[in-house]
From TrEMBL, chains A, B:
Source organism: Panicum virgatum
Enzyme class: transferase
Cell location: Endoplasmic reticulum membrane
PROSITE patterns documented for this protein: GNAT (PS51186)
Its EC number(s): 2.3.1.4
Keyword flag Acyltransferase: yes
One GO biological process term: UDP-N-acetylglucosamine biosynthetic process
Protein name in the entry: Glucosamine 6-phosphate N-acetyltransferase
GO annotations of cellular component type: endoplasmic reticulum membrane
Amino acid sequence: MTSTSPESAAAAGETNDPIHIRRLDLSDHETGFVALLSQLSACPDLTASEFATRFAELAAQGDDHVILVAEDTTAREQRIRATGCLFVERKFLRGGGKVGHVEDVVVDAASRGRGLGLRIVRRLVEIARDAGCYKIILDCTPELRAYYAKCGFVEKGVQMAVYF
Amino acid sequence: MTSTSPESAAAAGETNDPIHIRRLDLSDHETGFVALLSQLSACPDLTASEFATRFAELAAQGDDHVILVAEDTTAREQRIRATGCLFVERKFLRGGGKVGHVEDVVVDAASRGRGLGLRIVRRLVEIARDAGCYKIILDCTPELRAYYAKCGFVEKGVQMAVYF
């Protein structure tokens, strides 16, 4: 057998996949991460110092707070094309159980339709399961039900909010 | 004027309100807190050591993780009648904004209809606002929409979940 399946090629690191999914890094202040978030919500730019402070606060949570980013390694400039966040909530119920919360999933408008968001969300689901969470949850608009169903999510309730 | 309004009596600490709302304490392993949570979700009892470990993990989060309990000071035994949790999520968006998440609100079946849950949720909303959160959110069943509307919550989206 000389043929190579895509899986074995990927396992051997021989994949040509131009998308690299990794954890957010301090250097991502320069790769458009905050600008990408502005496609989801109001998001004024942060100074390098402000970014570093928040990064350090979240990094202190270790694997209880994971931000993944998808980087296009073929782009001339290092740019983030998609992101998603998982944080782990520790509870007293369920025998001291843990719940994964998915937040701030966004794909750059010019990079949609390539499955980047789904790849990130699926990875976050794996991380939550491997961390021993008994469930992973997220809130979304009704139009996104089918999108998240592709990652195994089912509708469970309603999200309520107070804005200050 | 010799009459005393309920407000001024409360301000002077002269209230006869038998309900004391306070933060969860390590000693609440003995006051029925875990048993109360079992009215909300599967909740096997925790040993004193397991309870202390989880308590310490959450206490390390300081004011970013607050569990309130309502204690009936007139009961023969010290018992928790209601509880609710708030944790603060720190984000990069909204200028490094913060979001309050309400979790695990439960009122003892024998103490419902006294407004204990509403008092706890309203207090959690105040804490989130005072902490500088730009919003506070929670997930609930559709039947509880009107309940949380009494605390100012409006429906914003759908909750999706994967159970492992």
